[in-house]
Amino acid sequence: MEKKILFSSVTVGQLKKVASIKEYADVDKFKDWFSFDYELSESESIFLSELIDKYETYLRFYFEEELKAKFIIPILNKIDFYFGIHKDWYERSISAVINGCQIGGMVDYMVADGFKEPESPYFFIQEFSPSLSRSNPHDQLLAELMVALHLNNSHEIKGAYIIGQLWTFAILKKDSEGAYHYWISPAFSAGKLEDLKAIYCYLQAVKESLPNGK
After folding, report:
1. What is the pLDDT of residues 156-178, one digit of tens each?
2. Which of 43, 109, 136, 180 could serve as 21's disulfide partner, Cβ 3.0–4.6 Å?
3. pLDDT of amino acid 64
4. What is the pTM (predicted TM-score) of this model?
5. What CA–CA distance (Å, rounded) separates 169 from 145?
6. Cα 122–Cα 162–Cα 13 angle in degrees, nearest 5
7. Which own/partner pairs from 48-54 qualify as long-range (CB within 8 Å, at least 24 positions apart)?
């Protein structure tokens, strides 16, 4: 068994040595999440349309920091996960010992309780990556969600990972036997206005699901 696993270099193969993990591509699992009734305001529609007009051509080519600064962070700021007991955190570290293996490292973005430091990650942890050239954001997200479930002593959590313009959503559930079940959605292209609107609504659904949500 692995004794220490870092998010930056993790693989699903390593995680499967730590715990039982089953992966699914079952879109029905996302039915409740993706059917959240959110009506975009006129200002939100204009905001998303202007993002597409300005940056669509470059989404596939931006380096990581450019992708975050130009496109992703404005969307997250518009949704505003900073409310109640919750804040959004960038480049913060979390870790946990799961079945005798320490898993941890820096996460690109999460929503969590906390004042000066994040404490309990809630439902949503997100990875950013312009390509698969350095590391696999899918595997990193899975590891981060496992750690978050352990820290929260909870049984289900949501997340997403981004590769260039493509957004994929995920749900991780831990059963009573300690096995993990992991669902991934179809990819949505942030370069297409209708897909971007859907992404925005799914993120609003995450916000609404948090304790003390709007």
Report:
1. 999 999 888 899 999 999 999 99
2. 180
3. 77
4. 0.90
5. 12
6. 80
7. 48/75, 48/193, 48/196, 48/197, 48/200, 49/193, 51/75, 51/196, 52/191, 52/192, 52/193, 52/196
| φ and ψ at residue 201, rounded to 5 degrees | -65, -35
The label of the residue with tokens 């005798």 reads 100
Cα 157 to Cα 121: distance, rounded to the nearest angstrom: 9
pLDDT tens sequence across 81-127: 887 778 888 899 999 999 999 999 999 898 888 777 877 787 566 76
Burial 16-52 (b: 16+ CB within 10 A, else e): eebeebeeeeeeebbeebeeeeeeeeeebeeebeebb
Residue type, 124: F
